[in-house]
Amino acid sequence: MSRIFYAIALFWALTTAAVAHDFSALARVVPDDSRIVDEGRAGVRIDLGLSQGVPYRVFTLRDPYRMVLDFQEVDWTGLDPDTFLQSDRISGVQFGAYVPGWSRMVLELGAPLAVDSAELRIDETSGEAHLSLILMGTDFDTFAAGSGAPRQQGWDLPEPAVTPAISRQGTSGALRVMLDPGHGGIDPGAEVDGSDEKTLMLTFARELREQLLRAGGFEVVMTRVDDQFVSLERRIALAHRAGADVFISLHADILSEGRAHGAAVYTLSKAASDVASDKLAERHDRGDLIAGIDLSGADDQVADVLLDIARQETKPRTDALARALADGMTQQGGPMNSRPIRTASFSVLKAADIPSVLVELGFLSSPRDLKNIRNPEWRGGMAQGIVDGLKKWRQEDRIKRSLIGQ
Question: Exposure pattern of 9-32 as b/e (b: 16+ CB <10 Å)?
């Protein structure tokens, strides 16, 4: 039996067996029984200790080479990536929540590897489980032929629904704001000194939502309200489904190049305004690659041209929004980046008909910015700056649109 067909047969057999055990409560990882080690010619061995057996599946993806393990469902608390990963043949590992009820582990492969054998052993007395996989090297053509995410109901993110957009300007003329806390779930974003971007931005989004609602004249929706992975494509789809008037993505990244610090507001551009912006766009979009989704080829050439035409109509309003938000945060004391308004090719800003910006609240690689972002009082001031900026933009935008309509 070839390695590809063996892996497929193995996946179905193990999934069926796991379901038959009728596992229920949330499984917990056992860090002391979990490791990835290089066994030389015997391949790479993955050992994963679990408090109980769970249904799981394994598949591979290319560009870049990845191996994905999905579980229903695992609490990863206590598993340290540096201790868990002990093989140079795996260049990186990520694990975390994927969608509600499902968890995901993604191995970044230094070279093509395939599942040679897999075994899920369950202790009949304790119910504890041990998953062991052996990965062996394979050639590029064989890896490519067997790669690709299987589509199975219940395991995957639903396709973005194509639904009529809700009429904009909300009830009583309220401005409907879509807040997009960056990253989430398996994708933590930037991490430093025990803090991660996904948690900090979710906290700030909740605080900003409260200030917008208290200010009046705003309706607020969010792409995520908890620690959940949301693909870039789905974030845009959610904005359309909600009939959002504006889309604000919230981030706090790390830049090793230079001494980046201070808040900045980004708008979409195919050509980044500087090298740092280009590198940020690469980091942000890599979140979907880590989670097993590849957006390459999502738009065909004709559709892309039509979208670009639509974006040209939205661009002046988007640029005005960026300036208003940057001015609002500056009035609250910032601190702002030396170039507070920038452009980059962030995929999350590609909604053609919704003014969309990305607010980089600061850089976690800057000790000053990290201290600020951890400070509730400072976050409150920046949230107020965004509220003030939205108020100013809404007023000016209404005037401009009324003049155009005359």
Answer: ebbeebbeebeeeebeeebbbbee
C-alpha span between 378 and 373 (Å, rounded): 7
The helix-helix angle for 232-242 and 275-290 (nearest 10°) equals 90
Phi, psi of 173, deg, nearest 5:
75, 15
Radius of gyration of the chain (CA): 23
Q: Residue 83 in contact with residue 34, Cβ under 8 Å?
A: no
Which residue, 306, 287, 316, 269, is CA-closest to 223?
A: 287
What is the pairing mode between strands 175-181 and 246-253?
parallel
Could you tell me where the DSSP H helices lie in 124-174? 140-146
User: Dihedrals φ, ψ of 382, to 5°?
Assistant: -70, -35
156-172 per-position pLDDT tens digit: 555 544 444 454 554 45
Please count the other Cβ atoms lying within 10 Å of the Cβ belonging to residue 119.
Answer: 11
Rounded Cα distance, 325 and 170, in Å: 21
Residue that is written with structure tokens 């398996």 in the block: 186
Ordered structural domains, the chain, with CATH: 3-146 (2.60.40.3500), 171-405 (3.40.630.40)
Q: Which strand (E) or helix (H) includes residue 55?
A: none
In 180-298, alpha helices (H): 197-215, 232-242, 275-290
Rounded Cα gap, residues 401 and 403, in angstroms: 5
Instruction: Classify residue 322 by its DSSP letter.
Output: H
* Burial label, 184 (beta-carbon count in 10 A; 0-12, 13-18, 19+): buried
Q: Quick: pLDDT tens for 227-245.
A: 888 888 788 888 888 899 9
List Cβ neighbours of 137 (8 Å cut-off, separation of 6 or more).
43, 111, 112, 113, 114
Within a 13 Å sphere around the CA of 337, how many CA atoms are in the beta-carbon half?
22
- To the nearest whole percent, how much of the chain has pLDDT over 90? 41
CA distance 189 to 195: 10
**pTM here?**
0.73
